[in-house]
Every structure is written in structure tokens, then in C-alpha cells.
Amino acid sequence: MSNDPSVQPLSDDYFVPFQIEASQLRGRMVKVGPALDDILKRHAYPDSVARLLAETAALAVLLSSMLKYEGIFTLQTKGDGPIRLMVADVTSVGDLRCYAQFDEEAVRKAERDVDIAPAAALLGKGYIAFTVDQGQDTDRYQGIVELYGKTLADCVQHYFRQSEQIDTGLTVVADKDSETGAWRAGGIMVQRLPEDPNSHLPPSDTREDDWRRAMVLLSTATGDELLDPALPAQTLLHRLFHEDGLRAWAPTALRFGCRCSRERVSDMLASLPRAEVEELKVDDKNVEVTCQFCSTTYAFDEAELDRVYAGK
After folding, report:
1. 29 neighbors 237 (Cβ within 8 angstroms)
2. Global pTM exceeds 0.70
3. Rounded CA gap, 192 and 206, in Å?
4. Please, what are the domains in the chain?
5. Is 116 helix (H, G, I), strand (E, B) or coil?
6. Three-state DSSP class for 203?
7. How many angstroms separate the most distant Cα atoms in the chain?
8. Over 7-38, what HEC string results?
9. What's the CA gap between 4 and 79, in Å, rounded?
10. Chain centre to alpha carbon of residue 254
11. Is the per-residue pLDDT at 129 higher than 80?
């Protein structure tokens, strides 16, 4: 762990855990650049869709990094708006991926309202879900709440108010560099844990003042600062909270990582009736399956399909 604001991150894709000592508030900051750009450039998303999906990816990192788990954390939105579905997941070792399903014409028509209320304009009515999957031998945890708010950050804060009763301050931003066209996202989340009657923290009224001060400081973080690749997270956190005793840990690296493989696609095809799979052939030649996350296409000719179904 380190309090040195000059500590450089492991890469340009990472998150930093921190604590504000004076009030015992905990938080995370995320900066994601090349990994996010790699994901988004595999798809032909309109900018408004890419931007909201980038925010979803950054939020998934912030939320997952608050948890202790071994497996996969998934953040999903589903609504009746132009973007029908967004999914971002993060593994406990830092592999990140995401994708969106949308109606391009409906997105175009909603553009005039995106700047006012991006979540409401693009997602419509629906829900946001948080899932932790730690494998076959464990129960999955899932939290679901209605989409409520102008932005994705509003929707996440609504979840914590409704489902977890945890005060949460959150700012997240994503944008494309006007010169290079590269996508980046960044965000900070601060949470106040429920009071422990056995703790030695100051009285509740003092803690309330501390919380309000932290939220005021958080609101001063600009989008340019959150997206600047030359500004390390610890340096920005130091600017914001050093007077209240910032304690920041070493950064944890993130990377683009898709879990698709030819073997997994083969197993999926084998679970379907062959006659049904045969109907998926392109030009009566190959069956092609494209991963929604990374856009990799897996083609299976007749001989390969014979091998897929040989063990059935």
C-alpha cells in the first residue's frame, strides 16, 4: 500500500482502492484506456452507444473491485429503449469485456435527448442487475433494481439506496479522443458503510459533515482529469482528499479478456439438435458463430460438425 501520489500504475488500464482516513470512507478509482478501446473498436457502435457501454464497463470495474470474490462479476442493463441490452463483466483477475444490443434507427432518433438524460433516452424502462458468479459449487448472488435516473451513475446510486441502504457517491465519464479516436473511461466511487456501534469513529453528526465534505470534493473532479492518461489515479486522489488523510493502495491492472473459444462454441453447438444447427449454414457451406463480446467468428464445415456430434 502507498500514500505516495507519484506511484505510477502498472498499465494504462487499472483501478486503485483507497480510504479517507478522517471519516473511514472507502472508495475506488478506475482508469481504462487501451483495453476499452480494443473492445469498442471490434464493433461498429454509434458513439452514443459506445459511450454508454464504456461507462458500463467502468462501473462494472468500480462495483466488482468493492467485493471479495473469485469468479465473474456482471453488470447488466435491460430496457425497452433503443439500447435493449448492455453487459459488462469483470473477472477476479482483471479480465474485462462488454457488448451492447441496440436498434440503430431508434438510437439515431433518440440522439437529441442523449445529452440531457443518456440513460433514460437510450435505455428506457427496465432494470439494472448485478451478478456475482463464483462457479458451479456456489450460489450466485444477484441484485436487481429498476432503471431510475438520467445517467447510469444515477441508476447505480438508486440501486444502493433501494437495495443496500449504503450511501454512495459516484462519478463516471467516457469519451473518444477527438484526434486519435481512442476511447477512454474513468470514474470514482466513494461509499459510507453502516455505522458500527462498537467503533471509535466520531459521532453521527460529525460523520455526516465528513460525508458531505467528501461529496463536495468528489464533485470537483473533472471529466478531463478522469480521462487524462498522463494523470495517474493516485495523483488525482491526492488532489481531492489528501487533507483528510488519503490512504491509497497499489493499482490493480485490467485487461481486455474474452472467454470465448472454439471448444466452448463446439460444446454449445453440441447441445442443440443437429438439424437446427444445419439451418444456420451460410450459403449452404459453413455454420458460423460470432462472439458478441469480441466479434470473433468461428466457422464449422460439414466435417467439423461431424466431429462435434460424434460423441453424442
Report:
1. yes
2. yes
3. 13
4. 14-256 (3.55.30.10), 262-310 (3.90.1280.10)
5. coil
6. coil
7. 73
8. CCCCCCCEEEEEEECCCCEEEEEEEECHHHHH
9. 43
10. 12
11. yes
